[in-house]
Amino acid sequence: MTTPRLTPSYARLFDDLRVALAVHRCGSMTRAAVELGTTTSTVSRQVSRLRSALGLSPFIKAEGDWLLNPRVAALLEAVEQANGMIESELARLIEADPEEPREIRIGAMPSVISHVLVPALGELQPVARGLRPIFESRVHETGLGMSDVALVFTLPEGGRIKARRCGSFAYGLFAPPCWTPGRGWVSLTDRYAARYGDDRRAWFGSDATLKVDSFAQEVAAMRAMGLAGILPIVVGEAETDLVHIPGSGLDLTRDLHLIYHESRSEDADLRCVIDWICRHTARLPALPDQQAQVVSVNF
């Protein structure tokens, strides 16, 4: 259903379009408001104003999320392209002053941030003075969201996204040295681990003793209760009081991809960050034994 179209102020229209782009990337007005540092009511008001300017609703509400109206997809893609070009040009203008603070938003799995990227910041700072990484935890997201660059398991469909495979991320079965089969196990909640639930219940012979919301919580539960659990190898190997249990058939490896918008291809800061990320994700530890199940994504 269309609404009467208002004559737009183009400065205001572009601002409203950037807000709509944030809603599209985040999937909800509430999350977009957090990312933009404003209120949900302000975001809603700007989306409503955009609806009046365009003569149609930019979003369709479905199952709690705001889905992009296909009729405005090309328009938001143009805004995303323009926004990326502006970011790149701003970065180029301040290259003459390398001490000028610049922010790069990096989206990745929490365990990659804590065990790979943050420990490697000392290598980034000397070659990118003034650069301020902002790390954003992401688990199931497939697109960029509000990040400048992101690590994902599954590549997004469509859009002007550049991608490169940057490593393999391995998971393995770990437990305290005293653990024996039948003593129980801990799992992430179904939100994260449902796809592996049947195989794991079959191997352990029972449902999980406990379900938690993060690998940090899982490690704490393994210690406190003497449970086994599936951990990223990069996490498990850092815990000296846990050992890898070989031969379970539960170990697996997933391809890791780095994505960014093509409009940022000439951004020197982003290229520097991408090279730095890829150097360290290429060194992610493999499984202690070679009996991993490799999970590949077909594109």
> Helix fraction?
25-40%
Biggest pleated-sheet summary: 10 strands, mixed
Question: Structural class given helices, strands, pairing?
Answer: alpha/beta
Head-to-tail CA distance between termini: 36 Å
What does this structure look like?
There is one protein chain. 38% of the residues lie in helices and 23% in strands. It is of the alpha/beta class and 299 residues long. Among the domains are: 10-78, Arc Repressor Mutant, subunit A, CATH 1.10.10; 169-253, D-Maltodextrin-Binding Protein, domain 2 (3-Layer(aba) Sandwich). Strands 3, 4, 5, 6, 7, 8, 9, 10, 11 and 12 form a 10-stranded mixed sheet that branches. It has a two-stranded antiparallel sheet with strand order 1-2. Strand 11, helix 11 and strand 12 (293-295) form a beta-alpha-beta unit. The model is unreliable at 291-299 (pLDDT under 50).
List keywords for this structure.
299 residues; alpha/beta; Arc Repressor Mutant, subunit A; D-Maltodextrin-Binding Protein, domain 2; 10-stranded mixed β-sheet; two-stranded antiparallel sheet; 11 helices; 12 strands
Question: Helix and strand layout, with pairings?
Answer:
Layout: H1 10-26, H2 29-36, H3 40-54, E1 59-62, E2 65-68, H4 73-93, E3 102-108, H5 110-117, H6 121-124, E4 131-137, E5 149-152, E6 161-175, E7 185-188, H7 190-193, H8 197-204, E8 210-212, H9 215-225, E9 228-232, H10 233-236, E10 243-244, E11 252-261, H11 268-281, E12 293-295
Parallel strand pairs: 3-4, 3-5, 7-8, 7-9, 11-12
Antiparallel strand pairs: 1-2, 5-11, 6-9, 6-10, 6-11
